[in-house]
Amino acid sequence: LALETELRQAVDQDQLVLHFQPKFDLASGDLVGAEALMRWNHPARGMVSPVQFIPVAEETGLIVPMGAWALHQACRAAVTWNQRPAARQVKVAVNLSARQFATGQLVETVCEALSSTGCLPQWLELEITESLLIDKRSNVREDLETLAALGVTIALDDFGTGYSALSYLTHFPVHTLKIDRSFVKDLPGDRQSGELVKAIVSLGRSLNMELVAEGVETDEQSRLLAAIGCHMAQGFLLGRPVPQDQFEALLG
Ligand code: G
Ligand code: G
Ligand code: MN
Ligand code: NA
User: Fold this and answer.
1) Residue owning the nearest CA to atom 6 of ligand 2
2) How many Å is the Cα radius of gyration of the chain?
């Protein structure tokens, strides 16, 4: 069966699941949120990585219903986490694809996910990539402005690897920069990576943005990032993406 046909069935037959990778504040050590990452629990192949199926989902347009599903599930999870007694507020971050903006329905889809689950806008972050900001024809900027006005925050994923001009950082409502793991992986040994990360942190801080380092795998990396003023971190050192019940166990 072609992957496309199987993926259509996956959506209809509830084979998709969200895993959640924890995100921590580097200064306090507090768990501050999670990135929702889609997985395909395939009946024969087991857990299929999004690296394999997201490209197919994007080509076929299936990412639109899949993305709406992910938004809904992630919002539902955020409500569960934040409604616990004496809970510290945690945010859920959801990855968006350009195809979802192209529908012209994204704002409506996000509003639907928020209202039908009771999720507060400040519990939701949307991750976009720089390439989305280059697309001049589309409604991306207007949609992001509308979402930001609601109180949803916007993160630029894989920051530093795209081709967008830095001016985009001020022309779009971007709240968070996620430093791509390619810059983090050779820390602390590689001097050039260190300088690039410092420059990104300094840029982000001077624009009043939050900084998240991705792909943190060692203690040394975590300490260095904290020392240069990076606010938050995600990575295998701190926690892998896990099913929702395991993430909830981390909340205590
Ligand atoms: O979870 P990692 O395990 O392998 O994810 C690989 C890639 O798939 C990442 O680039 C991530 O942004 C992307 N991805 C994971 N979940 C989603 C999703 O719900 N929507 C979109 N558009 N991309 C996703
Ligand atoms: O592109 P995006 O940033 O959304 O992708 C998240 C991807 O990064 C997921 O595939 C996730 O499993 C992976 N990831 C998260 N933490 C680490 C890490 O510490 N090391 C490596 N190599 N990959 C990671
Ligand atoms: Mn991401
Ligand atoms: Na990323």
Assistant:
1) 37
2) 18
Selection from 88, 111, 132, 95 nearest residue 234 by Cα: 95
ipTM greater than 0.90: yes
Report d(CA 166, CA 196) in Å as an integer: 14
Residues bordering ligand 4, an ion, CB closer than 5 Å: 157-158, 214
CATH code of 3-250, in short, is 3.20.20.450
Ligand 1 lined by 73 (C-beta under 6 Å): no
Q: Domain extents for the chain?
A: 3-250
CB hemisphere CA count around 95 (13 angstroms): 20
Residue nearest to atom 15 of ligand 1 (CA): 37
Taking the CA of 234 as reference, the closest ligand is 2
Q: Which residue among 47, 214, 219, 232 is best mutated to probe the pocket of ligand 2, counting the most ligand atoms within 8 A of its Cβ?
A: 214
Please say whether the beta carbons of 23 and 212 come within 8 A. yes
| pLDDT tens sequence for the chain (252 residues) | 688 999 999 988 999 999 999 999 999 999 999 999 999 999 999 999 999 999 999 999 999 999 999 999 999 999 999 999 888 999 999 999 999 999 999 999 999 999 999 999 999 999 999 999 987 778 999 999 999 999 999 999 999 998 778 888 999 999 999 999 999 999 999 999 999 999 999 999 999 999 999 999 999 999 999 999 999 999 999 999 999 999 999 998
Whether 38 lines ligand 1, by a CB cut-off of 6 Å, is yes
User: How far, in Å, CA of 178 to CA of 169, rounded?
Assistant: 13
Name residue 192's amino acid.
Q
Q: What angle do CA 153, 149, 22 make, to 5 degrees?
A: 15
